[in-house]
Amino acid sequence: MRLNQEKIEKAKNMFREIKLDKCPIFREEAEKVLALLERMQPYPFAYKSKEQFTRQVVVEYWAYYDSLETQLGAYPQMSRKTVFGEWFVKKATDPDHIQRAVRWLTEKGTDHEYVILDLGVAERARGYSQGITSAFSAGKEELK
Question: Which residues span the domain enclosing 121?
């Protein structure tokens, strides 16, 4: 994962805060995700797919902005499952909002591709095999 620094610099205001005026929905989450990823450079986690990257970002977002780790340690007499459930229902940012923000930030070929994912070998191999399958299917149709 790498950040498109040129686009990020253009999105910063005079206080060096990231402001994504063109983001149609989940703007606050998108700005926070981008700021979080910028703080985490170089990105410390390995990922094999866009989905796995997105899940990791959701957890990091919760830990940084929604105080997940503090909440889990705040009530030692309660089970972590119970504490997490209470926190998730009452205080956590909706994971769907964070996921949509990540999807918007990583959308290829757009003027808002702020995050560039370096997909793993497995993801590229899957795309390659789908291409071969499509070509093979097209060849079968020609033989009929």
Answer: 2-143
